[in-house]
Amino acid sequence: MISAYGQHEVTPESVVDAAMPLHPVISPDGRWAAYTVAAVGRTQDGPSSAIWIAATDGSSSPRKVTAGTANDFGPRWAPDSASLFFGSDRVERGTIQMYRIPLDGGDEERLTTWRRGISDYVPLADGRQVAVVAEEPPADEDEQAEGDERAEGDDAKVWGERVPNSRLWLLDLDTGRSRPVDGLGDRHVVEVAQRPDGGALAVLSWATPELDPGCLTCEVHVVDVETGKVRALGRAALDASSPTWWDRDGVWHLCYLATTPPGPVGGRAVFDLVVPETGLAADHHNLTSGMTVCPAGLAQVAEGPPVALFADGLDTAIYRLDPETRTFRRTTSMEGMATALTASHSGEVVVALASTAYEPMDVHAGSPAGRLVRLSDTRPELRGLGWGRQERLSYQASDGLDLDGLLILPAGSSRHDGPFPLITLVHGGPYARHADQFMLGVIPSGQWLATAGYAVFLPNPRGGEGHGHAFAATVAGAVGLDEWTDIATGIDLLIAGGVADPDRLGIAGWSHGGFMSAWAVGQTDRFKAAVMGAGISDWGMLVATGENGTLEAGLSGSCGWEGAGPHRHDRLSPISHAARIRTPVLILHGEDDTNVPVGQATYFHRALRRFGVEHEFVVYPREGHAIRERGHQLDVLRRTRAWFDRWLAVPARDHR
Fold first, then answer.
1. Domain Peptidase S9 prolyl oligopeptidase catalytic spans what residues (predicted)?
2. pTM score above 0.85
């Protein structure tokens, strides 16, 4: 455990100039874990990352198997566990090709040279083929030149034309030739998984690559590997992902994660269908209905039932499907956050990323019924730094609903040293959560603020992950209402307990958390400073311009085209309450954000300017919904803390 009394200063560079593990995958024989190690902050040229492997029994130190001078990522094991496939843009930045490297340290082999690259790849059980997902087939030089020629001015973007749907191809490793799977038509391939006995492929597809309406139109298909013949199984639930095969008494089932109906609010569930010999699949049975935990990952296990990760309040648990009852049963609990679960062919060993309160995210391995042991150590330099004490909180909302969250005290302090200036950090989603994990990151970060002398409250209001479908669904058409009072109740309890100074309160968040910050300052004057990161100011405009489109109406309750109004989404939009705002606001946004377009921030900025509210408006070029470039990440950290220092570091009355 990291001591709460370190000797070294926490700098922005110590946050940004670090490594993070991604994409862990266990070898079929269960002996090895491969994973990506990427830099937290990237250059303008793009991300850089390397592939590493580690023995799952911890018998040897992890070793780096690719140079990492470009974006080497997404390892996939060959069926014999003797080599690794991975993607890389080392030849042309931003264009991914597939490579293979032997486990014994031989030379890397480039397997694709496709003009626009590939997006996914699944090595097949026969060892001779790889299922490849790409926007278009490989082309020779003449075809490439012809395809690149375009009449001057012929670059109009017409909706529905030249849509780069991803197709499915079967690549022969011996000949290098690929054959298309034509039976899927022009549908956009989202995900592929092979039956563990080497049989058919399960394919999830959308009508279009766009989230709206793409994920609303998800279908399930079965592809015969030998003939390429496709059989449609019909419509899947909303935003289906993680197709996972399992066998019961010779009958094949297919599980997948999806949003619970009626959607899109209510969180994820595991659905299961029997794969028929002919015709469409019948019932898509919800295996997690009524559970008070939330599925967060599925892992295929040979021919037996799948293993799954579940978000369980502030912690995570591993479950196994009982094939007789078709219900999930807990096998072990894990403190804090775990994600990216993967299982060996036999299911006797699993690998996942995991983090606890004072240990950053790393690769862990072990039995799904036992304790997982850390394999990687990607951020050892953090052990010499001083962190705030992280406490678990549980309390009741004003209507009696049980809630949880976290409190981080200023580094080197205890509750007896309070009251402290308190900053509330609201998570995104709203279907996300604050698990009891190590809270050091670029976007308003708990430990980053705690090392500057702030107490930090991380609430889990209704609408989030970890407490089942009913808990998550309560914000449908009601964002900012009971969700906000849940947060306010927690703040009141911290004030009453002598932890928080009522005259020095701040609030911050990113994405949905940015919405909640903007919403909060329109409801009350109690906050002396706020940070709105990539936040929503107008739900009607978000339906019109955001990549999620009409899915956002599930949160806000209406769309602008539903008559002359007033509309429910107007009532729930922070912009509608801007005239009440007196709190100084720092607005941060990526210029190229497609999830929450920058117009949301511009609109809020103009409203604050109109009403004379003190604020700063910062737009980061080349950034999307998350801030990726190193220089911008450093700016976010410094600017966020400086903003709170300006308004909260001394009693608020001194600023009046």
1. 447-648
2. yes
